[in-house]
Prior knowledge:
Strand content: 25-35%
Radius of gyration: 23 Å
CATH topology of the largest domain: Nuclear Transport Factor 2, Chain: A
Mean pLDDT: 84
Amino acid sequence: xxxxxxxxxxxxxxxxxxxxxxxxxxxxxxxxxxxxxxxxxxxxxxxxxxxxxxxxxxxxxxxxxxxxxxxxxxxxxxxxxxxxxxxxxxxxxxxxxxxxxxxxxxxxxxxxxxxxxxxxxxxxxxxxxxxxxxxxxxxxxxxxxxxxxxxxxxxxxxxxxxxxxxxxxxxxxxxxxxxxxxxxxxxxxxxxxxxxxxxxxxxxxxxxxxxxxxxxxxxxxxxxxxxxxxxxxxxxxxxxxxxxxxxxxxxxxxxxxxxxxxxxxxxxxxxxxxxxxxxxxxxxxxxxxxxxxxxxxxxxxxxxxxxxxxxxxxxxxxxxxxxxxxxxxxxxxxxxx
Length: 337
């Protein structure tokens, strides 16, 4: 009888209408990583052990410690991708993490830990396949300071001890709900509409300033687009962000001295959708391209080179009247899209 009353109460709550602006909260238990994750990458079967150890290197040396100069040790040249926002091929993967995401190697490289944001939950292996389940921490859209956990998976097929094919649960972003956006705007007062227009203009100006400072390699101006603790991927804080641009310039100069021709960099932001997630928070969805010009004159037959393309989602926050980037993410997960 007690269970029936509890079930009835839960059913009534589920049927009750939610406010239009309500944001759901996770009902599940939190995802907890294994206390000793590296112990999961072993097997008494020699083939499974070799594949598990290769998966450990991918998870630790590549995904955690960013030692992408060693990627060919554990990934084949073909490296077939089934993530719809990632292209196949070893060269493309390395270029993305080193040149676009600007991941810096950790030295020394620490072991996997239960404290890792993407801590390993479980590892399974059968035949040529290894699957790793990891924790995924996802911020709530209406309050990015709060978050919940869910589970991500990566599955690799191995050939002679190197990953030749990869699967994960990523999907393409859904189309924005236009009717919901119209309804929200229609309910605003004249003063609120004016503020929304001013906020939109300020955020568009911020994203323009971001692209210009990056294309001009202006490290300090680039960092000033972020909050004090803002982040680009795993690079966090204005000082580290400015250093990231300084390192990019130094790396290009070394390549030029070695004889490589590098044209002027241009960043293109396209198909933007600005989503206001709160009075002082917003999310900027977009597609992006990074193009290097060759320096040739019009009609010379030389063409710009597209170095990268993809989709991004940036979280912005109003700080002391200024809209600043809190988190720039050029490789969002399904939950962040």
